[in-house]
Design goal:
The structure is a single chain. The protein has helices spanning about 25-40, 125-140, 150-165; strands at about 45-50, 60, 70-80, 85-90, 100-105, 105-110, 120-125. With about 170 residues, the protein is α+β, with helices and mostly antiparallel strands. The chain has a single domain, classed as Peptide Deformylase. The strands form 2 sheets. The chain has a 5-stranded antiparallel beta sheet. The model has no long low-confidence stretch (mean pLDDT about 95). The structure holds nickel (II) ion.
Length: about 170
């Protein structure tokens, strides 16, 4: 396994729309494993292929505290969404930045596993939030897009400041 480089905002490649995965081979399995390793190491609870500069519809997540419940969603599609909840979100492409975002609180998703086998799953709470956040990345959308222009510019200024401090 290998750790991958995570693109950080405002890298324009974060705006690329991912294409469907059509080849379910060893390279796809390796990519999913590398993405999980990269996500755990960051540490984070979700990572979309877009964030590692692979523009295919693939995301990984694990919201468990023990890091023992990895999920890989290939070609995910939202089938149903209901309820609203506000959750404080972060993103590995925005280190140190957090903001409240409102999303559906219950979802049903259709996807394929790394072998191409289709499945459906229901999710709520943090898992639902995480899946919606990562699915946004696959269409070139990031969580600060949901914020008001004022709130967004405040956060992005903070991101710049932290980056300068980190050298
Ligand atoms: Ni993110």
């Amino acid at each position: 396994m290998a750790r991958l480089h995570i693109l950080e905002f405002p890298d324009p490649r974060l705006r690329i729309r991912a294409q469907p995965v059509d080849t379910f081979d060893a390279a796809l399995k390796k990519l999913a494993e590398d993405m999980l390793e990269t996500m755990y190491a960051a540490p984070g609870i979700g990572l979309a292929a877009t964030q590692v500069d692979v523009h295919r519809r693939l995301l990984v997540l694990d919201v468990s505290e023990q890091h023992d419940s990895p999920l890989v969603l290939v070609n995910p599609r939202l089938l149903k969404a209901s309820g609203r909840e506000v959750c404080q979100e972060g993103c590995l492409s925005f280190p140190g930045i957090f903001a409240d975002v409102e999303r559906a609180d219950k979802i049903r998703v259709a996807a394929q596993d790394v072998s191409g086998k289709p499945f459906e799953m229901d999710a709520d709470g943090l898992t639902a939030v995480c899946i919606q956040h990562e699915m946004d990345h696959l269409v070139g959308k990031v969580f600060v897009d949901y914020l008001s222009p004022l709130k967004r510019s405040l956060l992005l200024r903070r991101l710049e400041k932290q980056r300068r401090k980190a050298g």
